[in-house]
Amino acid sequence: MCQWCNQHGDRGQKWYDKIENYMFEKVFPDEAAQEKAKEEIKSTFSQTEWRYSDPEFIRNKQFLQDRADSGFGSQIITKEEMVKVIRLADEATKRADTFMVLGHCPCRLVYEGVRDYVCIGFGMPVIMSMEVGYGRLPREGLTEYGGEEWRNLRRDLRKGVKVPLKLAEAEELIDEWEKRGLWHIVMSRGRLPLIEAICNCERRYCTYWMNRFRSDVPEYVLKGHFIARVHPEKCVSCGECWDKCQFGAIHYSPTSDNVDIDPTLCMGCGLCDGACPNEAITMVAREQIPLAKNLW
């Protein structure tokens, strides 16, 4: 099991399979802890969410490591696992004062100026979701924006947001994102084990990926619990799988005229499995692969 599962799972359960981890008041049971967490949530959004492109944040390894140590963490999951996560998050909304909401990707907004609505937020109390900007924004901003500029921003942000996001809508979006070739990350933004979002992104924009591979802080996004495996007798070298792989894990062999998948490089996103038209790829549990079972 990965480090997050060992710390925040339950009797061999993955950390994102435990419904209590989707419920703010279960993770922070006493009032003092709740107030502290709420202040940290405000601070996170007001101080850093709008500054993804600032080198002080995305290239400062010590800063990123400190954030990881304080509870920032995520993990790659497959489409099938994402469906389970969304269903758990939806169940949590029925047990607690929370809801699911569709929001845009801050990473792509910074790097390309486009609001691409590919992130699902949950886990925070409704009032906190309103305060930090998940679909319902406060009259006064928590960021450097203010006055007319802030009102315009609030109006613009609301255009693509669905609040609350229904389970059936979320499941349709998962299929859409999978076809686009976006990997899926389940994440906590500073409050492990509280699970707060699913991010669907790609290598070009994902700051969590950059924090791991460019800044060498692996806790920001752990490899998944599954690894892709090829069945050579079914592979016809159509190229669909390596078009989907963004981690350099798939290699074409002209000698055998099929593909190999390097288990040490595979992140476990499952996009290649979903793209293969011949069912030549399956996802196997990481612990079944001795070479990669401890590579998180």
Structure description:
With 296 residues, the chain is an alpha+beta fold. It folds into two domains: 3-220, no CATH class; 226-288, Alpha-Beta Plaits (2-Layer Sandwich). It is 39% helix and 14% strand. The protein has 13 helices and nine strands. It has helices at residues 3-8, 24-27, 31-47, 55-58, 61-69, 79-95, 106-112, 126-132, 147-158, 167-180, 207-213, 240-244, 271-275, and strands at 72-77, 101-103, 119-121, 183-189, 197-201, 226-230, 250-253, 258-261, 281-285. The strands form three sheets. A five-stranded antiparallel sheet has the order 1-4-5-3-2. A hairpin with a 4-residue loop joins β7 (250-253) and β8 (258-261). α6 (79-95) packs antiparallel against α10 (167-180). The chain is globular. It starts with a helix and ends in an 11-residue tail after the last strand. The model is unreliable at 133-145 (pLDDT under 50).
Which short descriptors sum up this protein?
alpha+beta, Alpha-Beta Plaits, 2 domains, 5-stranded antiparallel sheet, globular
Low-confidence stretches: 133-145
Largest sheet: 5 strands, antiparallel
Assembly level:
single chain
Helical residues, percent: 25-40%
Our measurement of the CA-to-CA distance between the termini, rounded to an integer number of angstroms, reads 9 Å
* Coarse structural class: alpha+beta
Strand order of the largest sheet: 1-4-5-3-2
Mean pLDDT across residues: 85
- Fraction in beta strands: 5-15%
The rounded Rg comes to 19 Å
- Given the C-alpha coordinates, what overall shape results? globular
Total domains = 2
> Quick one: how many beta strands?
9
Helix tally? 13
SSE ordering: HHHHHEHEHEHHHEEHEHEEHE
